[in-house]
Structures are given as C-alpha cells and as structure tokens.
Amino acid sequence: MTRRQWASRAASALALGGGLAPWIQPAHAQDRGNGDWDASPQARQLLRWVAATADNQRMPFVVIDKPEARAHVFSAQAQWLGSAPVLLGLALGDRTVPGIGQRPLAQVRPHERTTPAGRFVTEPGHNLQGEDVVWIDYDAAVSLHRVRSATAVERRLQRLASPRVRDRRISYGCINAPDAFYNQHVAPYLGQMHGVAYVLPDTESFATFFEAASAY
Fold this sequence. Notes:
Elements (H helix, E strand, L loop, with lengths): L2 H11 L27 H13 L7 E5 L4 E5 L5 E6 L2 E2 L28 E9 L5 E6 L4 E5 L9 H6 L7 E3 L3 E3 L1 H8 L8 E6 L5 H4 L7
Parallel strand pairs: 1-10, 4-8, 7-9
Antiparallel strand pairs: 1-2, 2-3, 5-6, 5-10, 6-7
C-alpha cells in the first residue's frame, strides 16, 4: 500500500471521533515577552505575528520548531498550552518530494524523509489502527501523532528523551509527539477541529516561508 492509499483509507475508514511528563511544560498564559515561554527567537517572532494579525483565524495552532525539534501548542486565542520535544523527518530539508505520498514507505529513500516547512491547515483523522492523528499535509501523508516505534532499532522513545536535536531526526516526515503531551495538548484542540500548523524551516530562510512574519 502506498502512503497516499494509506492516508485515503485512514480518512474514509473511520469517523472523527495522563498526567504531564516532567519534561513537558504545562499550560501557561499567553507569552508577553517575560521569558516564561521557553522557545527560540524565531518561534517567538512567529507567535508575535500570529497574535497581531490573527493569522490562525481563531483556530488552535501548533508551532513546529524544526531547528529545535520541539512543538508548541496554542489555543485559538494564541494562549500557550504546552511544549515538548518531537521526532521529525530523518533528512534536513523543507520541501516535500513530489509524489512521495503515492509511494510505498519502503521506496522512500533516507534523503527524501523530510518534514515540510510552511503554513498548513490541519485536520483531525485516524490511521488504520484506529489511532487519532492530526493531518498536516494530507497529500504527502504527513501527520502529527503519538510516538510509535516502527522497529526496535530506531529507539524512538530514547531519542525523544535525548538533549541532542540530531537524535530526534528519525521519521519518514511525520511529527512524533510524546503520548502525554499529545493527550493533554494536541488531542483536545487540534484533534477535535481544523487548526493551523506553522512548521519552521531548517535549511531555507524563515522569510521564504513566513515573509509577513519577518517584520515582527
């Protein structure tokens, strides 16, 4: 089965339907420049733009900071809800290989396993095992979901706990989040309605994907 077929069957087969780990930051009021929200300068810049322009169109949103391999979730009112490390595509790069969603996973070469950058309208859905996911780029079969180990040798749970960003580059392009973080901050918001994913680039410039935000 190709990635595109997998995504299509996942969307049509099923209808939409613990506690915080110590390294997951809890919900907090909207960042006001007081340093309470631990994020990179570019992630903060993006948030200022979203909050000032309401680019999220009153939808919950997530900022995926690829250079930091972290996810930051916000409410529709741009209130910071929580942050956590995530696993990203094995390869550096901000573009999706054309047609990759129609290929079997076994035919996706290591250098093609990128997590695309940009602004995406997200949609909740399910995979074939009945697990809920948040589709980021449906055609490319890229989603945000709970971490799951494809093979033991990948050591995905151990990679999530690693302080080294490079260790958190292992997926085919999907964004893997810790279970507790997904259950607490993703599922109740992006998992229930359309949202927005802002994925920061790791090889191209910030302005290439978020030109309007560069003034903030």
